């Protein structure tokens, strides 16, 4: 059967609609014998008192039949019945949507991390002024001899100040050849393992001019051989002294 209020299908023996909560008025079949139907006391009383069929319709009209499965709204007073609330199903969770949101959050996190890294690098450059050179002369000398051993022009270039680097770049090919020759010289005179044990010893001041201080650094190669290299200090930074250098 169908609900007489909302038209939705319900069990045949239901007294109330499980969808809208309306009380169901059971109709007798159209072909049923009127004499066999149970009398409705309220309707008979109204008919007897008024004696008019029109008054009976005015007071209480029967419900119009349900035609073609479509619900019809009962005419006349309807019993007020509180609707039966059905539990609403939870909204389905879309795993793809949640996955895309998590991916979006991860992508945003990576972008933020990248931006933060760039900011840190820029701040470090501004704070330290992008200075070249070395704060420790021992580290400078160590890298200098390592560049010679590896015959690495770019590593050698980092040991000089910017002005000397310009001159070295102009003679790049010649200096590469000199690096090879110097490596062979050290291999022949200090054994091939000379680079494994480089110890930077003391320094002695040679000169000072216009804010630049010049030093001679004593170096021990392979534990047995002594060598020396000249450096200069300018604004708390050490560089190889190109004027006294081998190149």
3D structure, described in words:
The chain has 247 residues and is α+β, with helices and mostly antiparallel strands. It has a domain of 104 residues: Nuclear Transport Factor 2, Chain: A, CATH 3.10.450. It contains 7 helices and 4 strands, in the order αααααααββββ. A 4-stranded antiparallel β-sheet has the order 1-2-3-4. Strand 3 and strand 4 form a beta hairpin. Helix 1 crosses helix 2. The radius of gyration is 51 Å and the shape is rod-shaped. The termini are far apart. About 21% of the residues have low confidence.
Helix and strand succession?
HHHHHHHEEEE
Specify the structural class.
alpha+beta
Strand order, largest beta sheet = 1-2-3-4
Looking at the structure, what is the overall shape? rod-shaped
Our Rg estimate from Cα atoms comes to 51 Å
Compute the number of helices: 7
Rounded average pLDDT: 74
CATH architecture of the domain at 137-240: Roll
* Percent range for β-strand residues: 5-15%
Low-pLDDT ranges: 32-37, 39-76, 124-130
Largest sheet: 4 strands, antiparallel
Portion in helices: 25-40%
According to CATH, what is the class of the domain at 137-240?
Alpha Beta
* End-to-end distance: 107 Å
What is the strand tally? 4
Q: Could you tell me the CATH topology label of the domain at 137-240.
A: Nuclear Transport Factor 2, Chain: A
């Amino acid at each position: 059967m169908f609900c007489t209020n909302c038209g939705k299908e319900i069990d045949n023996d239901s007294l109330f609609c499980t969808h809208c909560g309306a009380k169901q008025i059971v109709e007798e079949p159209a072909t049923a014998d009127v004499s066999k139907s149970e009398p409705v006391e309220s309707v008979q009383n109204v008919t007897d008192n008024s004696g008019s069929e029109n008054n009976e319709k005015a007071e209480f009209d029967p419900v119009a039949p349900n035609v073609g499965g479509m619900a019809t709204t009962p005419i006349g007073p309807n019993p007020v019945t509180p609707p039966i609330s059905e539990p609403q199903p939870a909204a389905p969770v879309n795993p793809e949507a949640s996955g895309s949101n998590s991916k979006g959050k991860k992508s945003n996190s990576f972008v933020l991390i990248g931006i933060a890294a760039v900011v840190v690098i820029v701040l470090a450059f501004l704070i330290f002024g992008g200075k070249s050179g070395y704060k420790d002369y021992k580290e400078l000398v160590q890298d200098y001899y390592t560049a010679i051993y590896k015959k690495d022009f770019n590593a050698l270039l980092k040991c000089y100040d910017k002005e000397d680097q310009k001159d070295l770049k102009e003679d790049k090919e010649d200096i590469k050849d000199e690096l090879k020759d110097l490596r062979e010289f050290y291999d022949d005179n200090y054994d091939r393992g000379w680079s494994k044990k480089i110890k930077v010893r003391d320094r002695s001041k040679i000169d000072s001019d216009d804010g630049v201080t010049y030093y001679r650094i004593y170096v021990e190669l392979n534990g047995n051989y002594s060598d020396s290299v000249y450096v200069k200090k300018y604004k708390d930074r050490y560089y190889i002294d190109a004027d006294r250098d081998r190149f």
